[in-house]
Structures are given as C-alpha cells and as structure tokens.
Amino acid sequence: MLDENKNLIIILLVLALFTGATIELSEGSTTVGIVLFIAAALLISRMKLKDTKGLKSSKNYMLIGGFIVAADLIYNYVNKSSLGTLDSMVFFLGVSLIAMGTGKRDLKQLGEFGFYISLVFTILYLIFYSFFGHFNIDFLHLFDHYFVLMPTVALIKLFGIPVEIIAIETVILYGAEPMTIVIGGPCSGLYSMFLLIGIVAGYSRIERMDTKRTFSLLGLAVAIAYIANLVRVVILYVTAYLYGMDAMMVVHTHIGWMIFALTAGGIMYLMNRKR
Q1: How many whole angstroms separate alpha carbon 12 and alpha carbon 18?
Q2: The CA-based dihedral angle spanning residues 100, 103, 105, 106, taken in that order and rounded to the nearest 10 degrees
Q3: Residues 208 and 81 in one domain
C-alpha cells in the first residue's frame, strides 16, 4: 500500500509537471518547459516497479504511439509551427501508448492513465473548439462572457476595483492607467476542466469504479475546475490592478498549471479515499 500511494503521488506530480511543461512551451518560457519535462522523466524513473513476470509488452501499442509522436513532431516541423495545446495532448497520447506497450506493470498503468487523459482531452477539444467552430456554434464566446467574465467582474467590484465591460470578452480595468483585458481562450478554464474529466475517466477505468461513483466524481471535477478558474482570473485582475499588465502576463503564464496541480491533487486524493 505504501508503494501504491508513493506511485500515486508520483503520477500526480508527473501529470502536473507535464501540464506545466506544455503550457510553458506554448505560452511561456521554452527553457522552463524543457526543465519541467526533464523533471517529469526523472520522477517516472523513481517509481518502484513491481515484478513484471507474466506481463507482456505490446509492440503494436509502441509502434502506434511512436507513429503518433513522430507524425506530430514532423507536422509541426514542416509547418514551422510551435507546439500548441492540441499538439501537446496528441504527443502525450503517443507517449502514453508507448508506455502501455512496455512490460513494466506500473509504467503500463501510468501509460493507460495518460492514454485516457489525453484521449478524453483531445475528443473534448475537437468537439468544443473544432466542431463548434466549423458549424459557427458560438458556445465558447457565450461561456466566456456569462460564466467567466461576468462572475469575476462582479467579484472584483466587491473589492472596490474599478472595471468596465466593453465587449463580450473584453473589460477595461482602471489601475494606474486604463488596461484592456480580454477574457477568452485559455481564460475560459475549459482546458483544465477537460484534463480533470480525463483524470476521473482514466482512474475510473483503471480502478473499475461503478458508474454512479464515476459520474459523481465527474460532476465534482467540473465544479472544482470551474471555481478554480474563477479564482485564477480574479488573481489576474488583482495583479494587473496592483502591478500592471506586464506583471499580470507573467502570472498568467505560470499560475494556471500550478492551480491545476493543486486541484488535480485534490481530485486524486478523493478518488484514492473512495477506492
């Protein structure tokens, strides 16, 4: 049991570091992103693996995973594009399949866990960002306005911070000077929500949880992700008001994955208790 709990903590830390690395590579510091990736790899090596006798590796998983990783890297290289959010999760999907193809039990479990997380995220991303966009379904802008912008504006007004809504996703914050802030894209918090849904889905499959318990945890994950994102956006408002836009952008780059690590930790702790 001690080794299982240790591995659970390592899995959580690996997930948090990987998430931070992808965000840093796409929006922040490349150097920090690489350091976080290396740290995640070192943590995996610290896992106490069980006896793998009787467990067979699957070359098919490894070949498919390797193909996905290579295709993602080649696509970005040919198109001279940076590693985006969807690219990161596709890359994660490929690496997870490679881990599933090994003969090491805990590494296979980590791979299976990562497979469900990345698959769920990719499917939800394609639905909400690609499918809705293709058919001009204006869900994202409406969600950003009514479920992110308006609640957070109401909250900071309670603190006496002067702010004005000027567009569906845009506010003017009156600090030392007027600052225009756009609440959209990653600020919707949907990325973290997709990841937490993937965590619950993956854990549910691995631990064979019943349907009722799974859906209750899914509802809890969505609620926690939503509230955590509101807290994050309020912190960004306050930072901009007190220290200016430059400071806010620095905080914006790093705070998201840190809050995600804390919320994911809470979710995994609850799931472990339920088990």
Answers
A1: 10
A2: -60
A3: no
Q: Are residues 144 and 259 in the same domain?
A: yes
DSSP letter for 49, please.
P
* Domain carrying residue 239: 138-275
Per residue in 103-127, pLDDT (tens digit) is 677 678 778 888 998 899 999 999 9
Instruction: Give the count of domains, the chain.
Output: 3
Residues 27 and 149 in one domain: no
In the block, residue with structure tokens 């998201």 = 256
Per the CB < 8 A criterion, the answer to whether 229 and 148 are in contact is yes
User: Cα separation of 166 and 192, whole Å?
Assistant: 27
Q: Is the pTM of this model over 0.90?
A: no
In terms of domains, do 266 and 186 share one? yes
Consecutive H or E run containing 182: strand 178-182
Long-range contacts of 130-136 (CB under 8 A, 24+ apart): none
Is residue 170 within a helix (H) or strand (E), and if so which, with residue range?
Answer: strand 170-174
What is the rounded CA–CA span in Å between residue 195 and residue 19?
9
